[in-house]
Amino acid sequence: MEKPHGESPVNQEGHRVAPDGDARKPATGPALYLRWLGILCAVMAAFCLGVFLIGYQGPSFGRIATLIALCIASPVCLWLSRRLS
Question: CA 35, CA 73: separation in Å to the nearest integer?
Answer without folding.
Answer: 11
